């Protein structure tokens, strides 16, 4: 491996001046060690994101990437693997020059999690990078591995001293979900990690927080005068948070069977969205201020009861999607033929605060639904009085503000408007803001933003212990209730979920949106 030019001693990035927020945020010298580097997440998201950051000039010249795994690879073999991942999935164009520069800092360490010698080899590789490339003893350890492997990895990181930074350098741990499978296991897991890293050095990934449209929730709410006055129980009838996916679970049985939709995405992504929508204005955008408000709102969030009526779960059955017949979950490879794992979950949450008293938040997610869409809809109360004949407003629904998280990113405001013509007829129309049309800048992938923030030590977009535990506290009673309730209701693939979900809203005269 050729030696890269070292940054001069005491090098600080001239572009990284905190006072000028217009300057790009560029990570200082450091190494990123990825455990589970050959897994799906790494191949599809992490490796491409690292390349995209390099391509955007946001990594320091000494940035180095260490892959750890069982494969019998050398550094060049690892670089070939990363090249394939990047060429298949990177967001920005492939540039040989960028890749070659990045590849100079790639190392592969072969080993197993339970082997002391493997971690000694990681330590050697990192020492070598400090010397050859000036990584300065700054390392982030990314655990893209099942949580059952966390304890052994953390134990070794501690035993080899890798978790403990010498004066003037840093060590950080990045952990992927699932962060436990209930409150008790999450507390246990937090305990394991905190024995080795302090809270400020732990970065728990919830990749939804890295999405531009999710970060825009706080901009929309707190940078404008227009919305905040109506963002409360006086005007909002209810809130619907939908994360619908059209994909099935073929190939994911190992992770998903026994986990289910509620643990997979409600506990993290959807409750984080709820927190951002329902929280009070933070004192500032400093990480701890935002966290304080999110934690407060999650403490005030409670399930609605009785759970038989306020929740719904389902499992996809055979059906049609995109013109193709697809099989049901029980026929997917790897799933037990009597699996009770839910692939659709919906819950009703209330937030006990003056702002939200009496406003239900309906959260739903599902696989093999009609289309892929994530959105947050604030559905407003009807006008208290309509000075029209009934026939004139037959086509008028409730006003709604819809934050379109993906794929068609933007915001829609739905309101009533007169239909052109000689009579007075009012019908719903949409006013749209669309990212593609409004901005020339394209949105970075969530993982680009999150990896960069880890390397910068910027914690705002990472849930803290309390948020994770409070989310489990909200969800645990539902999981217990469903656990005692036998098999979930089957719903046809390509539809919008089980009948029980429709009934759940119908009880209060409401309907789910059909995005
Ligand atoms: C992950 C879930 O967190 O998010 C997956 O584990 C899901 O089940 C994925 O498919 C969806 O992410 P995105 O960014 O495509 O909405």
UniProtKB/TrEMBL annotation:
Residues 218-513 form the Glucose-6-phosphate dehydrogenase C-terminal domain. GO terms for cellular component: cytosol. It holds the Pfam family G6PD_N. Residues 33-216 form the Glucose-6-phosphate dehydrogenase NAD-binding domain. Pathway: Carbohydrate degradation; pentose phosphate pathway; D-ribulose 5-phosphate from D-glucose 6-phosphate (oxidative stage): step 1/3. Keywords: Carbohydrate metabolism, Glucose metabolism, NADP, Oxidoreductase. Belongs to the glucose-6-phosphate dehydrogenase family. This is Glucose-6-phosphate 1-dehydrogenase. It comes from Segniliparus rotundus (strain ATCC BAA-972 / CDC 1076 / CIP 108378 / DSM 44985 / JCM 13578). The gene is zwf.
């Amino acid at each position: 491996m050729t030696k890269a030019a070292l940054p001069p001693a005491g090098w600080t990035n001239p572009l990284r001046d905190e006072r000028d927020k217009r300057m790009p945020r560029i990570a200082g010298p450091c190494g990123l060690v990825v455990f589970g580097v050959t897994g799906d997440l790494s191949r599809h998201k992490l490796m491409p994101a690292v390349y995209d950051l390099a391509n955007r000039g946001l990594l320091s010249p000494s940035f180095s990437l260490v892959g750890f795994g069982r494969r019998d690879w050398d550094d060049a073999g690892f670089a070939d693997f990363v090249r394939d991942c990047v060429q298949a999935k990177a967001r920005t164009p492939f540039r040989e020059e960028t890749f070659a520069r990045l590849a100079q800092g790639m190392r592969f360490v072969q080993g197993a999690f339970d082997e002391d010698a493997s971690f000694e080899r990681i330590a050697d590789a990192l020492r070598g990078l400090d010397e050859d490339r000036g990584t300065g003893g700054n390392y982030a350890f990314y655990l893209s591995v099942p949580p059952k492997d966390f304890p052994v990895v953390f134990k070794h990181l501690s035993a080899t001293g890798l978790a403990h930074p010498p004066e003037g350098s840093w060590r950080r741990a990045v952990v992927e979900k699932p962060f436990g499978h209930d409150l008790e296991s999450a507390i246990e897991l937090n305990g394991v990690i905190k024995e080795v890293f302090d809270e400020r050095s732990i970065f728990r990934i919830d990749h939804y927080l890295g999405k531009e449209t999710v970060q825009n929730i706080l901009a929309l709410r707190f940078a404008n005068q227009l919305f905040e006055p109506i963002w409360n129980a006086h005007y909002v009838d209810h809130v619907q948070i939908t994360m619908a996916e059209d994909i099935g679970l073929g190939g994911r049985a190992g992770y998903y069977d026994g986990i289910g939709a509620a643990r997979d995405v409600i506990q993290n992504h959807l409750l984080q969205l709820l927190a951002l929508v329902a929280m009070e204005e933070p004192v500032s955008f400093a990480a701890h201020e935002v966290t304080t408000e999110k934690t407060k709102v999650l403490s005030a969030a409670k399930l609605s009861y009785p759970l038989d009526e306020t929740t719904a779960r389902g499992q996809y059955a055979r059906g049609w999607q995109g013109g193709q017949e697809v099989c049901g979950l029980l026929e997917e490879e790897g799933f037990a033929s009597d699996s009770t794992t839910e692939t659709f979950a919906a819950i009703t949450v209330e937030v006990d605060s003056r702002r939200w008293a009496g406003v239900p938040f309906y959260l739903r997610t599902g696989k093999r639904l009609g289309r892929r869409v994530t959105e947050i809809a604030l559905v407003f109360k009807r006008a208290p009085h309509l000075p029209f004949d009934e026939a004139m407003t037959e086509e008028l629904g409730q006003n709604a503000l819809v934050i379109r998280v993906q794929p068609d990113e933007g915001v829609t405001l739905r309101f009533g408007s007169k239909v052109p013509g000689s009579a007075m007829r009012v019908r719903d129309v949409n006013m749209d803001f669309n990212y593609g049309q409004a901005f020339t800048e394209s949105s970075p992938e969530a993982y680009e933003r999150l990896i960069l923030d880890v390397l910068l030590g910027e914690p705002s977009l990472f849930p803290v212990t309390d948020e994770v535990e409070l989310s489990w506290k909200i969800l645990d009673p539902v999981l217990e209730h469903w656990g005692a309730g036998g098999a979930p209701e089957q719903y046809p693939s390509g539809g919008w979920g089980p009948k029980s979900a429709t009934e759940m809203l119908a009880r209060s005269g409401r309907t789910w949106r059909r995005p």
